[in-house]
Fold:
Amino acid sequence: MQIDHSTDDKKVKRGVFARIRGNFLAGLIIVAPIGLTFWLIWTVVGWVDGWVWPFIPRDFHPEEMINHYFGTEGAPPITVNVRGIGVVIFLVFTIIVGWIGKGIMGRSLLRFGERLVDRMPVVRSIYNGVKQIAETVFSQRDTSFDKACLIEYPRVGIWAIAFVSTNAKGEIHSKISADGKEIATVFLPTTPNPTSGFLLFLSRADIRELDMSVEDAAKLVISAGLVYPHDKPASELQ
Structure:
């Protein structure tokens, strides 16, 4: 009797790649909010500097003072530009951060850091907003939504993307469905932050289910209609 080891090898490889992918996505959820928060703050500071420094005498600029006191003026600059190395370093770093973030120590450090961020008024708003978007896009958690759909909102003739969660039950169903129609619980997200929105109860006849996945519909909402499923233009989806 001959044992086929190729199937087992394929399963092992898929398991390894699945763990690497999971660590990478977990790392993105951690790295993206922190990196974008620092980038936004750095950009704002640079924008303010661009307005302020022209009014400061050149002798008091940091570069001039360093060159004057440490004798670096005239030294040839050192430049390194090897394309692709930065991408590899970023991938490895993100996977390591995701692996650490899944552990007890990593989660404790994240909670401690987020408590510090919550005490900073401007930084808190930026970080929490970017974190919510990153968790929506990259999280691998099973979604509670059944389908993405279209509903007419805020009036007839205007369509919005929403998510069907479950059928209405109990008192809500009995009060709305007087004629026995099936009532669905629908979540209508806002753009570009899909974590806020409206809870609606609609008849199934008023809902048009979409073929796209819930994840693709969420990306469409977050991007304000710029990112369509599978990079298809809007004309191909009609």
In short: The chain has two domains: 7-138, 147-237. The radius of gyration is 26 Å.
